[in-house]
Amino acid sequence: MSTLPLFDPVIHPPVRLQLAALLASVNDMEFGTARDMLAVSDSVLSKHLAQMQEVGYVRLRKAALGGRQRTWLVLTKEGRRAFCSHVQALQELARIAGDKASS
Questions:
Q1: What span, in angstroms and rounded, lies between the C-alpha atoms of 79 and 66?
Q2: Among 20, 23, 43, 93, which is most exposed with the fewest C-beta within 10 angstroms?
Q3: What are the distances in angstroms from CA 71 to CA 20, 30, 63?
Q4: The pLDDT of residue 1 is above 60
Q5: Residues 20-24: contacts with CB under 8 Å, at least 24 apart
Q6: Mean pLDDT estimate for the chain
């Protein structure tokens, strides 16, 4: 029996997985845009970002825009690697499930 693929526990929760997917497709994303796309509150997004920042997967960049302080989210190289590895693990699990279903 083969071992099951390992998921990244930081990226695995749905909001963080979706956030990593959003950020993987862009150089950066404004906090409000990410919040709206994920359909979560500021506090929920902030909590998930804090966990991703703690392990170095996300970096925040703050700057003034139109007279207001804005925050941009950036997926780091480590974050991109972790996201890609996690997606590979999900694909492997799906392959295993597909093999079992067709047996």
A1: 30
A2: 43
A3: 16, 6, 7
A4: no
A5: 20/52, 20/57, 20/75, 20/79, 20/82, 20/83, 20/86, 21/83, 23/58, 23/73, 23/74, 23/75, 23/79, 24/75, 24/80, 24/83, 24/84
A6: 93
